[in-house]
Design brief:
The structure is a single chain. The chain has 2 helices and 8 strands. The chain is an alpha/beta fold. A 5-stranded mixed sheet has the order 2-8-7-4-5, with no helix packed on it. A 3-stranded mixed sheet has the order 1-3-6, with no helix packed on it. It is elongated and about 75 Å long. It starts with a helix and ends with a strand. The relative contact order is 0.19. Mean pLDDT is about 80; it is low at about 25-30 and about 30-40.
Length: about 120
């Protein structure tokens, strides 16, 4: 009797753990258009160029939208991706891209030679 009860509880726990920890399924080809839009929705970050540098964590394949605000005119550069954006003082500049490479990448201002963020992009 005790062994049967123990076995039943063990099976129930294993099934529960499997349900909680299983990998998420890929989106099937027949998924609705709205589901596809949500899957490709950009990861949005706001970066204050005059604040302390921050670390932004992403995954390869993420669509990224960086909104950067600076008190001074400058040129924003994302190393490793060779993306640049001219910033106007007090106006948010928006940089959009797809995170295609994993690693750590510096986001910096060229005129001030200041690092404003690090992008940590993890492989999926």
């Amino acid at each position: 009797m005790r062994f049967g009860l123990f076995l039943g509880v063990a099976v129930l726990m294993l099934v529960s753990l499997w349900a909680l920890l299983r990998p998420l399924a890929e989106m099937p080809p027949g998924a609705s258009a709205s589901a596809r839009v949500l899957a490709d929705a950009p990861r949005r970050f706001v970066v204050d160029a005059d604040a302390a540098p921050q670390i932004l964590r992403l995954d390869v394949g993420d669509h990224v939208e960086l909104s950067v605000l600076s008190a001074h005119d400058d040129e924003l550069h994302l190393h490793g991706y060779d993306l640049a954006l001219d910033l106007r003082a007090g106006e948010p500049g928006v940089l959009r891209f797809v995170a295609e490479h994993s690693g750590r990448f510096e986001l910096e201002l060229h005129k001030r030679d200041a690092q404003i963020a690090i992008l940590e992009i993890q492989p999926r």
